[in-house]
């Protein structure tokens, strides 16, 4: 009797998706968190984390049935595109934000000729220690640097920075 239109949705973190179930007159979605209305057939869901919603549907003669839908969130970590390691204690270190729940990853920064100037595979280090603009104790010059990230979150989705697998940063001294 209860039939959810789609049993799986993959949405961007902070986005919404409209759920839809048919086959009844009374609807009860649980959990209610993240739903705009848990008592209708087509609520909008904006979960804060991956969530499985269950809906109980009751028809006109009192028969009930249930169905479920899973919503996974695409998490986008963030890397600034500019930092200034000039010793003024403002933006002196390049940090990466939003690496919670990362199972494995690799992060590399290359200079303009393609040489590696920074490499790290520990999310906690990237978030707490970051890159100070040096390589093997030598300050790297101002300029454009290229980064590449690989890895996955605990939910199996790929690690992306600003929604991308690679990009550029500007080091300004």
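-> sequence recovered:
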């Amino acid at each position: 009797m209860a039939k959810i239109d789609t049993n799986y949705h993959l949405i961007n973190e902070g986005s919404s998706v409209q759920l839809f179930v048919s086959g009844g007159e009374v609807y009860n979605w649980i959990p209610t968190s993240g739903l705009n209305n848990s008592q209708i057939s087509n609520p909008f869901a904006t979960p804060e984390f991956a969530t499985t919603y269950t809906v109980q549907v009751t028809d006109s003669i009192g028969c009930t049935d249930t169905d479920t839908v899973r919503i996974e969130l695409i998490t986008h970590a963030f890397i600034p595109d500019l930092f200034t390691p000039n010793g003024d204690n403002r933006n002196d270190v390049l940090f990466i934000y939003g690496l919670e729940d990362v199972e494995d990853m690799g992060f590399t920064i290359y200079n303009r000729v393609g040489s590696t100037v920074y490499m790290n595979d520990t999310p906690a280090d990237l978030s707490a220690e970051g890159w100070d603009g040096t390589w093997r104790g030598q300050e790297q010059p101002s300029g454009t640097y290229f980064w590449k990230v690989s890895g996955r979150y605990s939910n199996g989705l790929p690690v992306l920075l600003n929604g991308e697998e690679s990009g550029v940063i500007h080091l300004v001294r």
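The first helix runs from residue 123 to 128.
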